[in-house]
Design goal:
The complex is a heterodimer of chains A (289) and B (296). Chain A is mainly alpha-helical and 289 residues long. Chain A has 14 helices and no strands. Chain B has a two-stranded antiparallel ribbon with strand order 1-2. In chain B, 74% of the residues lie in helices and 4% in strands. The chains are: A mainly alpha (289), B mainly alpha (296).
Chain lengths: 289, 296
C-alpha cells in the first residue's frame, strides 16, 4: 500500500506527511469497507442458496454452514425450471440480437450522417426510455389479447425490443460519435455502401461499445418483471416471474427462492467480469452524454 | 441551406433516413399507439372481463380518483418515496464518489464491483431483502437484537414498511449515482484541481465551490433519471410488500396495476397510469429548464 497516498508537496514537514498518509489509509479502509457492505446482500443470497433448510431458518444467522445442492435439485425437480430458463434465454437472446442490429443502423445514421432534425429525433427516442412501464402495459395487455399474442414468445419479444431500443440507440450513438470521421470517408472512397461501412468498418472498431450495449440489453431484458407478469402466464413465462411466485405460496421456501435468484444472477455476474471496464463506461455514458 | 447541398449529399440524407426509419417507425407504432389507446381507455368505463360493455365515461375515472382517498395516499406515498430515496441516494452517492475519486491501488476493481447492484434483478434483490428483514430468522433483526433493539416485522409494519423499502432502493441505486458522479468528477481538468490546492482551499470548500458547480449538468441528469425511475417504480416494491401494509408503500404504478389487473377496472388503471406519465413529464421539463439555465 506504499503508493496509496501521493507524496505531499516538497518541503512538507515529515510529521505532516505522516498524518496525511495515515488519513489516506483510513479513507482507503472506509472505502473498501463500504463497497464490501454494499456487496454483502449478494454474498448472503449466494451462501443461503447452498444452505440446508434447517440452517436457512436458524434464528441465529450462520456464516459457517454445511454446503448442499439440495435447493437446486429441488428447484429443478419441482418447478419445471429448465423449461422456464429456456423461455427466458430464447426471449432475451432474440430481443438482444434484434435491438443491436436495428439500433446499430439507427445510431449510425444519427451519429455519423447528416440528418435534418437528427438531434430532435435522438431526444425523442431517449424520452421513450422514461415511459412508465405500467402505462404501456395496460394497452399492450388488451392489444395482445385481441391479437392472440398473450403468453407467446413473440408477444413479449415485440414489447422488449420496443423497451430496449431507445436506450440502445442512445448508448450506441454515444460510442459511435467518438470514432474519427475519416473512417467513413475513406470507406466511401473505396466504394463501400453505408450498410457495408457499418458492418465491415464500424462494428469491428466500436466492438467494445457494441458489446456493452448488447450486455445492457441482455441484462435489462433478463431482469424485466412487470411486462412478463402481465403478458405471460404458463407457456412463455420467464425466470423473474416464476421466482416471484414462490412468495405467493403459504410458506416461503427460502432455499428454492435463493437458488432461483442465484441462477437469475449468474448471467449478469459472468457478464460484469467479462467486460468490466466497458460496462462502467456504458452506464456513465448513457447518463452523461 | 438544403438547396446548396449536392446531389450526392441529398442521396446520403435519404440513406440516413432509410437506416433510421425501421427503428423510428417501430418505436412510433409501439409507443404512440399504445399511449393513445391508453388515453382513450382513461376516458372510458372498461372492465377487463366485459369489454363489450365498455362505454364513454368522460372525466368520470379522474373524478372518481379525486374522491378516492386511496389514490391521494398513493400519490403521497409515491412522492415521499421518491423524494426521500433520491435525496439519500444522492448524498450517500456523493460521499462515496468523493472517496472513490482518489488514488488507490485496486480502485478500478472497487468501481467495477459497484456495478453489480445496479445490474441485479429487482426480483432477486427484493427477495433477498425480504429474507434479511424476516422477523425470527432474518439477519437484520438478529443484528438489532445483538445491540438490544427489539425485533421488528419490517415490511409488515405500517410505520416501518416505507423506510424499509426505501433502504432497499437506496441500496440498489446509490452505486448508480456514484458511478455517474465519479465520471463527472474525473472529467474535471487537472489544472482546476491544482489551482484550488494552491489557493489553499480545504477539501470541503474544493468540493462545494469548485467541483459541484463544474459537474452541475451531471448532477441534474443523475437526479432526473433517479427521480423519474423512482416515480415510475414497481418491481422492487411490489416484490417486497405488494404495496402494503394498507397503503404504506402503495406506489402509483402498484395502484394502477391492482386497479387494472386485480379489480379489472382498466379505465381507472389507465387514468392512474396517465397521471404518472404527466407527473414524470412535469419533472422532466423542470429539470431540462434548470439544465438550460446552467448553460446560458
Amino acid at each position: 500500500m506504499a503508493d496509496a497516498v501521493l507524496p505531499g508537496p516538497p518541503g512538507r514537514l515529515p510529521a505532516a506527511a505522516a498524518v496525511d498518509r495515515l488519513r489516506g489509509w483510513g479513507l482507503n479502509g472506509v472505502t473498501v469497507a463500504l463497497v464490501a457492505l454494499w456487496l454483502f446482500p449478494i454474498y448472503w443470497l449466494i451462501i443461503t442458496s447452498f444452505k440446508p433448510a434447517e440452517e436457512i431458518n436458524s434464528p441465529v444467522p450462520l456464516f459457517v454452514f454445511h454446503p448442499t445442492l439440495e435447493n437446486y435439485y429441488d428447484l429443478f425437480a419441482r418447478f419445471n425450471f429448465p423449461h422456464i430458463l429456456q423461455n427466458s434465454l430464447v426471449i432475451t437472446a432474440t430481443t438482444t440480437v434484434v435491438v443491436i442490429v436495428a439500433g446499430l443502423f439507427a445510431a449510425y445514421a444519427l451519429a455519423r450522417m447528416h440528418i435534418p432534425g437528427g438531434k430532435h429525433i435522438a431526444l425523442w427516442i431517449l424520452s421513450l426510455r422514461f415511459l412508465p412501464a405500467i402505462a404501456v402495459g395496460i394497452p399492450f395487455y388488451l392489444m395482445w389479447q385481441r391479437f392472440n399474442l398473450l403468453d407467446t414468445y413473440l408477444g413479449l419479444i415485440l414489447v422488449y425490443v420496443a423497451f430496449n431500443l431507445p436506450f440502445a440507440i442512445w448508448l450506441l450513438r454515444g460510442f459511435l460519435v467518438e470514432l474519427p470521421l475519416d473512417l467513413d470517408e475513406a470507406a466511401t472512397m473505396d466504394g463501400l455502401s453505408r450498410v457495408q461501412i457499418v458492418r465491415r468498418i464500424i462494428v469491428p472498431v466500436a466492438l467494445p461499445g457494441v458489446a456493452a450495449t448488447a450486455i445492457f440489453t441482455f441484462v435489462f431484458t433478463w431482469n424485466e418483471y412487470l411486462m412478463a407478469l402481465l403478458l405471460t402466464a404458463v407457456r412463455s413465462t420467464t425466470v423473474p416471474v416464476t421466482v416471484s411466485k414462490f412468495i405467493m405460496a403459504y410458506a416461503i421456501l427460502w432455499g428454492d427462492v435463493s437458488a432461483a435468484a442465484v441462477i437469475e444472477l449468474v448471467p449478469m455476474l459472468v457478464v460484469v467480469f467479462l467486460l468490466q471496464r466497458h460496462i462502467v463506461r456504458g452506464i456513465t455514458l448513457g447518463a452523461v452524454k | 441551406m438544403l438547396a446548396r447541398l449536392t446531389a450526392a449529399e441529398h442521396y446520403d440524407i435519404r440513406i440516413a433516413y432509410l437506416l433510421l426509419l425501421p427503428s423510428v417507425l417501430y418505436l412510433l407504432a409501439m409507443s404512440v399507439y399504445p399511449m393513445v389507446f391508453s388515453l382513450w381507455l382513461a376516458f372510458r368505463n372498461y372492465l377487463i372481463y366485459r369489454p363489450d360493455l365498455s362505454s364513454f365515461a368522460g372525466l368520470g375515472n379522474f373524478l372518481d380518483l379525486s374522491h378516492n382517498e386511496v389514490f391521494w395516499q398513493s400519490l403521497q406515498v409515491t412522492l415521499k418515496f421518491s423524494a426521500i430515496a433520491v435525496t439519500l441516494e444522492f448524498l450517500l452517492g456523493l460521499a462515496v464518489a468523493v472517496l472513490l475519486d482518489r488514488q488507490m491501488r485496486g480502485m478500478g476493481v472497487l468501481r467495477t464491483l459497484l456495478v453489480i447492484p445496479v445490474l441485479v434483478s429487482p426480483v432477486a434483490m427484493g427477495l433477498t431483502f425480504r429474507y434479511m428483514y424476516a422477523p425470527s430468522y432474518g439477519l437484520i433483526n438478529y443484528l438489532l437484537s445483538l445491540v438490544g433493539l427489539p425485533r421488528l416485522d419490517w415490511i409488515v409494519s405500517t410505520t416501518w414498511a416505507l423506510p424499509a423499502v426505501i433502504a432497499v432502493d437506496v441500496w440498489q441505486w446509490t452505486p448508480f449515482v456514484v458511478l455517474i458522479l465519479l465520471s463527472g468528477m474525473q472529467s474535471v481538468p487537472v489544472d482546476v484541481i491544482e489551482a484550488s490546492e494552491l489557493d489553499g482551499l480545504s477539501r470541503w470548500q474544493h468540493l462545494w465551490r469548485i467541483i459541484m458547480p463544474m459537474i452541475r449538468p451531471v448532477v441534474l441528469v443523475v437526479l432526473l433519471i433517479r427521480l423519474i425511475d423512482s416515480i415510475r417504480g414497481f418491481d422492487l416494491i411490489y416484490i417486497l410488500t405488494r404495496g402494503g401494509p394498507s397503503t404504506a408503500t402503495y406506489l402509483l404504478s402498484i395502484h394502477s396495476y391492482v386497479k387494472g389487473f386485480t379489480e379489472g377496472d382498466m379505465g381507472s388503471a389507465a387514468a392512474i397510469a396517465w397521471i404518472t406519465v404527466v407527473l414524470v413529464n412535469i419533472l422532466a421539463v423542470l429539470f431540462l429548464r434548470l439544465l438550460a439555465r446552467g448553460k446560458a
